[in-house]
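Weekly modeling sync, notes
Attendees: S.R. (lead), two postdocs, one rotation student

Agenda item 3: backlog of single-chain predictions. S.R. asked that every request posted to the team notebook include the full sequence so nobody has to chase files. The rotation student volunteered to paste the first one in as an example of the format we agreed on. Action items at the bottom.

Example entry:
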Amino acid sequence: MPIDYDDTLLTGDNITDYKTQQFFRAYIRMAREARIRMQAPSDGLGTVMLTDEELTDPLVLRNEAMEYASEMVAADEKTHYELFGCTHGPWTQAFAFTLQAAELMFSGAGAEPTISRLLQMALDEMRSS
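Predicted structure, as returned to the notebook:
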């Protein structure tokens, strides 16, 4: 069940830079819908180290989202994104499909059908392994 955060701090409407606003909103959606908070303090093994109060505090989430947006905009401006880790064996093909889809997102309009197919292939591969 998604956490119901106070929307007034989390809309991103006050952010004037378009890319920053989009990355900010993406982080908020990931927190709400996928329940993933990459900028939250963690034990390094996937456990978020926030109190129950901090988990539902919209200001904490807003600060995480701004940090994420700033880092993503900086990576975007350098045209350099970094991934760390190694693939989970059975999901190697799904990873390859997803990574290629991400790279195609740099190309802009016209790539949507191929991106969509690759992401569907990745989901299918994950579900079958």
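Discussion: group reviewed the output briefly. The longest helix spans residues 58-78.
Action items: rotation student to repeat for the remaining queue; S.R. to check formatting next week.
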